[in-house]
Amino acid sequence: MRYTLKLLSVLSLTVSASVFAGSFTLSSQDIAQGQFMSKTQEFNGFGCSGGDVSPHLKWTNAPKGTKSFAITAYDPDAPTGSGWWHWQVVNIPVTVTEIPADAGNTKTNRAPSGSTQIQNDYGSRGFGGVCPPEGHGVHHYRFTIHALSVEKLALPEDASGALAGYMINGNTIESSTIEALYKRD
Q: Which CATH number fits domain 22-182: 1.10.530.10, 3.40.50.1950, 3.90.280.10, 3.40.50.300?
């Protein structure tokens, strides 16, 4: 009986520690889960006239074994048959846990030192803002932080969004997503 009680106490502490351990979480001062984004995050081109500013992102409680991070911004609703990559940043050092708004602007050099921004589906590196077709309804934009098991992804300089996504997903320990919305009437 005494052995059983000790075992139950140990199991209870183990479960309690798991329940109270923080989960990997992404937050932002600029976008929110299920909420519409502002014109600030809209692309400037393709008929859109927004600020083309990537949102502030912050993450906490990276899982054990994390060696680097990657950020992706993806629209699964784009009428392409394969969605639309708005932004991919790889090889973010494990010491970085927050990026400022406009870090996706390759002219301001606000991305984390050592990171690489992959070419987006607009054909340029860095953040390409939201720009769903007029009258196409609400689009869902998935901003995801990936905790990776490797320090650097071995990608060619001209890696496609699909290849980068494959390598990111193949090395992800855990991820956290904010799905924000946008619509053009």
A: 3.90.280.10
Check whether 33 has a pLDDT greater than 80. yes
User: Cα separation of 168 and 149, whole Å?
Assistant: 10
Name the 3-class secondary structure at 15: helix
> Nearest-CA neighbor of 153 among 57, 71, 62, 63?
71
Residues 6+ apart with CB under 8 A from 27: 57, 58, 59, 60, 178
What's the whole-model pTM score? 0.88
Separation between Cα atoms, residue 149 and residue 141, nearest integer Å: 25
User: Tens digits of per-residue pLDDT, 114-132?
Assistant: 999 999 999 999 999 999 9
Q: Where are the domains of the chain?
A: 22-182
Residue type, 120: N
